[in-house]
Amino acid sequence: MGKIYKGKLENGTSVAIRSLAISKKCSTQNLKVQLDLLSKLHHPHLVVLLGHCIECSGQDDSGGNRLFLVYEYISGGNYRTDLSENYPEKVLKWPDRLAILIGVAKAVHFLHTGVIPGSFNNRLKTNNILLDEHRIPKLSDYGMSIITEETVKLEAKGEGPKSCGKNDLEGDVYNFGFILLESLVGPRISGMGEAFVLNEMASFGSQDGRRRIVDPIVLITCSQESLSIVVSITKKCIFPEVSTRPSFEDVLWNLQHAAQVQATCLICSLLLSCL
What we know:
- The structure is a single chain.
- This protein is α+β, with helices and mostly antiparallel strands.
- Helix 3 packs antiparallel against helix 5, helix 5 packs antiparallel against helix 9 and helix 9 packs antiparallel against helix 10.
C-alpha cells in the first residue's frame, strides 16, 4: 500500500516512511485517534509506529489528502527473501524458521488479545515479516485495515469503521497458515492456486510426499516429530471449513511445542555422538 521511503530523524535515527493517499471525506479526527492507538502498541515482534502526519491539499474537493506513517527502520530485509536465499551461510534452517514463526505468532496473539480493542485482519504474509540484523522477526503492516478504501467509504457514510469480529480473527489464522506453508515448502507456494495448495497438503501425510514437496533444507535440519507437529497445525489453519480452524493461542502453543521437540532431539543427538 502506497510508497515507502527511507529517511532520518533529526537525531540520526533511520526510519521508514509510508505515503498513502486518503479521501478528503475521511474523518481525519477519527483516523488520528486510531493511529494514536496503533502508535501505543509495543511488542518485541512488532515494527513500531513512531508517528504520523496528515497533509491536506486544500479546501476544495479536487485531489485528496496524504497520510505519512513513520516507522522504525528494519535493516535485515523480509522473511520471504530469506526463504529464497541460496547462499549456504544465509540459509534458514528449521530451528531458525521456527524461531521466526514463534515470534510472529506471539505478535499476532498480542494484537488479538493484548490490546482493547483488538487488532485483526493484519495483512499476514511472509514479505510483511521483517528481520533485523539478528534475524529477530518484526511484523509490519498490522492494523492497516483502518485506512483501507472500504473503511474510508464506511466512515464517509457515517457508519464508522468496520467491526473486527470472529471472521477477521479466523482470517488471520488462515493467512498465517500460508506463512507456515511457505516455511515448509518455500516461497514458490505463493504462486500456486489455492485448490492446488490444498490438494498438495495431502502429500504431507507420507514420507515420500514430504520428500517431494518440503524444502530440502527443512528435511535435513528438522526432527520428524517437530515437522509433523507443524504440518498438522498448518493443515488446520488453512482448512476450508472456517469453524474447524484453531485459535491463535493453539497455533502458538503448537509452534512452541515443535521447537521444544526439535531442541530435545538436538540434545539427544549430541549426547549420542559423544558416546
